[in-house]
Amino acid sequence: MTDPSTGRSNSNAFHVLIIGAGIGGLCLAQGLTRSGISVAVYERDTSAEFRDQGYRIGLKEAGAQALHHCLPPHLFDLCVATSIRQATRMVFTDEQLTPKFAKPVPPVEPGQAGFGVNRLTLREILLAGLDGVVHFGKTFRHYEQLADGRVLAHFADGTSATADLLVGADGTNSAVRRQLVPDAVVDELHWAVYGRTPIADGTLDWVPDVLVDTFNRVIGPAGAAFAVATCRPREPVAAAAARLAPGLRLTDQPGYFSWTMPLLDDSLRTADAATLHQAARAMVDGWHPAVRRLIAEADVAATFPVCITSARPVPPWDSANTTLLGDAIHTMSPGRGEGANIALKDARLLRDALTEVAAGRVPLSQAKQHYEAEMLRYGFEAVAASLHQPFAPAARGGAKPA
Ligand SMILES: Cc1cc2nc3c(=O)[nH]c(=O)nc-3n(C[C@H](O)[C@H](O)[C@H](O)COP(=O)(O)OP(=O)(O)OC[C@H]3O[C@@H](n4cnc5c(N)ncnc54)[C@H](O)[C@@H]3O)c2cc1C
Question: Edge-to-edge strand order for the sheet containing 140-145?
């Protein structure tokens, strides 16, 4: 039975409180639940619906294996069944789509070796079976240490919850990090605009092959560029859910193109979707007609700006019962497609460490120290690597306090 004031399933058991129902926080919650550990997740969003964070996520071996490790087998199989069809080539072209460089992408059987996912589908699968564990509409404000060694989290609605361990999985602008590591710095690298164009009947008749099922980059003059990912599930998500997880409702995901361009005009950072969409159209004026049409036929309301950020390394912190995971500690440029993979890897490592604690084999302090030392090492290695990517827009803007 869950106690509504604490989210605990058993008032005496070791209890973990996670702030943030994103990719990392939910994977950890799944893993802990699988290990029989009491866990509650507090999320500021009011539902699982889409947030402005991009549409497609490429999972590599580390991310796919972490999901395999933490999810019940049928939910991992559902991730694979609903995965996005793989790209077959990497292609760079000029703005008239004349290829400048191309090479084949070796095929990988989707599974533990990796696969692409639709972000919303992944989040919906990660939420499966967590009814009563995930509390939506709860914005974390701050925490305090209690005299009995536990930690108390306070939320914007005036409620609070206690735990033996608080995990900040609350993303790039983490409020948990602000309190735990107040000197941490996150650098603003550049801005980009993201959009989405439905694949309707006949769309694939006019989109050139060079843009379909490829990792591509169309490079124009004066820093302008365009990249588009083809996102088509291997199996319709509703059919896959009915086959593998009867009763689980997944939002339908017809095929679409997800595209992105650097946002070169600083005044557009706060622009609404319609203004951004107009600006994107203007940026490709004179480019190949297919690029112009891809943007013209976009779902205008789904156009949004993203600030690409990168965390500076932080030294280990001193806290008995508060830690961090994923973008909350080591946010990075998405150029190499590592952020979600590393967040999932964190979730797996922390889940394994806490399983030892709950079983009484390792004290919490030791497990936490082991997790943080490893996570900080590989996490900031990945941040450093993400800063060295071909064709990355030059870093602009400045450091912002985390
Ligand atoms: C455009 C784009 C494309 C990307 N593509 C890829 C890719 O292909 N591959 C890849 O590996 N990575 C990719 N990434 C990076 C990836 O999205 C992140 O690294 C990943 O989402 C991090 O997961 P997380 O759980 O740490 O944080 P998030 O997924 O950001 O989740 C944090 C959660 O915390 C919640 N939250 C925040 N503040 C509070 C609060 N105060 N109280 C309660 N809840 C709160 C948020 O609402 C959110 O649900 C991309 C990122 C962007 C921006």
Answer: 140-145, 151-155, 160-163
φ, ψ of residue 393 in degrees (nearest 5): -60, 145
Confidence of residue 7 (pLDDT cuts 50, 70, 90): low
- SS3 assignment, position 216: strand
Listed in order, strand segments (DSSP E) in 120-265 are 134-135, 140-145, 151-155, 160-163, 165-168, 185-198, 214-219, 225-231, 256-262
- Note the pLDDT tens digit of each residue in 333-375: 998 889 999 999 999 999 999 999 999 999 999 999 999 999 9
Q: 262 CB under 6 A from ligand 1?
A: no
Q: Tell the residue number behind the tokens 């590393």, with chain if given.
A: 342
Angle at 79 between CA 191 and CA 20, to 5 degrees: 50
> How far apart are the CA of 342 and the centre of ligand 1, in A?
11
Q: What angle is formed at CA 153 by the lines to CA 152 and CA 159, rounded to 5 degrees?
A: 105
| Exposed/middle/buried for residue 211 (C-beta within 10 Å: 0-12, 13-18, 19+) | buried
Beta bridge partners of 58: 116
The pLDDT score that the predictor gives to residue 393 is: 42
Decide: 170 in ligand 1 pocket, CB within 6 A: yes
* Percentage helix, strand, coil for the chain under 3-state DSSP, each rounded to 5: 35, 25, 40
Tokens of 21: 């129902």
Average pLDDT over residues 143-150: 95
CA dist., res. 338 & res. 386, Å (int): 8
- Can you read off the two tokens belonging to residue 26? 């939910």
Report the predicted TM-score, pTM, of the whole model to 2 decimal places: 0.93
Helix (H) / strand (E) element for 231: namely: strand 225-231
Domains by residue range for the chain, with CATH: 15-401 (3.50.50.60)
Determine whether the shortest distance from the Cβ of 379 to ligand 1 is under 6 A. no
Residue at token pair 């622009």:
271
